């Protein structure tokens, strides 16, 4: 539950309170998130445990949560520098609403003191080798083994594969939704790394297209993107120019 304002008289009263989904709220605001190897089990701040019957749904949920947290953090830094990014702020608002309204099955339970003593694998003391992109944080973050919980620290608040009681998971060949390639994976992290590479290629193309549209919008306020079936490339034309262009092919 969250509230928008606090009324203080002789007592404190919470005003405009709203119920919020537990999993999404925890993934957005927890200071420490620990997961198992396939994200089916997540522990937030060492006292609340989330269990997901569908690990793939948990993968997508925690990936979206980290992207929202990273975007939010970057926008806060801009505010401190007295700068702003209106487009990113609007997109964050839209993504936040979609994230909170996502329907996903999970169970939640509070961990006892006895559980907290045996739920982490602990550090191995060996040097880890991490290859490939980090789908949860930028390139400036140095991945390392968590010296308290074990596992891999993928973000300032996220530790991967540090929980005990994990059974051996055999992954079927996975088909990437971006490139339609069939890939043999041994962990959920490998799957997300491949998605990161494919998604970055798609995003770069989309960003270039949006930048081009912004430039054309300044040159021609009424211009819109027009994909002519007979001409190569993309055209940016006003409605009148579209009609003239269509007639030129008749």
Describe the model.
The longest helix is centred in the last third of the chain and has 32 residues, at 188-219. A hairpin with a 3-residue loop joins strand 4 (41-44) and strand 5 (48-51). The protein has helices spanning 22-29, 55-80, 86-100, 113-118, 188-219, 239-248, and strands at 2-8, 12-18, 33-35, 41-44, 48-51, 107-110, 144-145, 152-155, 158-160, 174-175, 182-183, 224-226, 235-237. Helix content is 39%, strand content 19%. The chain is globular, with a radius of gyration of 23 Å. The relative contact order is 0.10. By secondary structure, it is an alpha+beta fold. This is DHX34-like C2H2-type zinc finger domain-containing protein. It comes from Acyrthosiphon pisum (Pea aphid). InterPro entries: DHX34_Znf-C2H2.
Summed up, the helix count is 6
- Strand order of the biggest β-sheet: 6-5-4-3-9-8-7
Q: Evaluate the radius of gyration.
A: 23 Å
| Largest beta-sheet details | 7 strands, mixed
Coarse morphology:
globular
Mean pLDDT: 84
Please give the number of β-strands.
13
Which residue ranges are poorly predicted, with pLDDT under 50 across at least 5 consecutive positions?
A: none
Query: Helical amount among residues, as a percent range?
Result: 25-40%
Task: State the main characteristics.
alpha+beta; 6 helices; DHX34_Znf-C2H2; seven-stranded mixed sheet; DHX34-like C2H2-type zinc finger domain-containing protein; 19% strand; 250 residues; two-stranded antiparallel sheet
Task: Offer a concise description of the structure.
By secondary structure, the chain is of the alpha+beta class. It has helices at residues 22-29, 55-80, 86-100, 113-118, 188-219, 239-248, and strands at residues 2-8, 12-18, 33-35, 41-44, 48-51, 107-110, 144-145, 152-155, 158-160, 174-175, 182-183, 224-226, 235-237.
């Amino acid at each position: 539950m969250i509230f928008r304002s606090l009324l203080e008289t002789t007592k404190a009263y919470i005003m405009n309170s709203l119920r919020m989904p537990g999993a999404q709220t925890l993934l957005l605001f927890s200071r420490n998130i620990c997961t198992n190897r396939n994200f089916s089990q997540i522990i937030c701040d060492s006292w609340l445990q989330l269990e997901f019957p569908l690990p793939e749904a948990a993968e997508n949920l925690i990936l979206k949560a980290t992207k929202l947290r990273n975007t939010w953090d970057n926008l806060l830094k801009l505010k401190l520098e007295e700068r702003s990014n209106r487009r990113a702020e609007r997109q964050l608002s839209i993504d936040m609403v979609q994230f909170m309204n996502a329907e996903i099955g999970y169970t939640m339970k509070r961990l006892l003191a006895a559980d907290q003593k045996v739920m982490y694998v602990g550090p191995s003391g060996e040097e880890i080798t991490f290859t490939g992109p980090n789908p949860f944080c930028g390139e400036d973050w140095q991945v390392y083994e968590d010296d308290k919980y074990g596992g891999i620290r993928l973000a300032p608040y996220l530790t991967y594969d540090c929980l005990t009681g994990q059974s051996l998971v055999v992954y079927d060949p996975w088909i990437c939704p971006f490139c339609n390639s069939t890939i043999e994976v041994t962990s959920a992290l490998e799957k997300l790394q491949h998605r990161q590479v494919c998604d970055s290629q798609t995003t770069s193309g989309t960003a270039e297209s949006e930048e081009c549209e912004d430039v054309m919008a300044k040159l021609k306020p009424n211009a819109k993107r027009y994909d002519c079936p007979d001409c190569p490339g993309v055209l940016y034309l006003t409605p009148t120019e579209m009609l003239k262009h269509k007639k030129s092919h008749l």
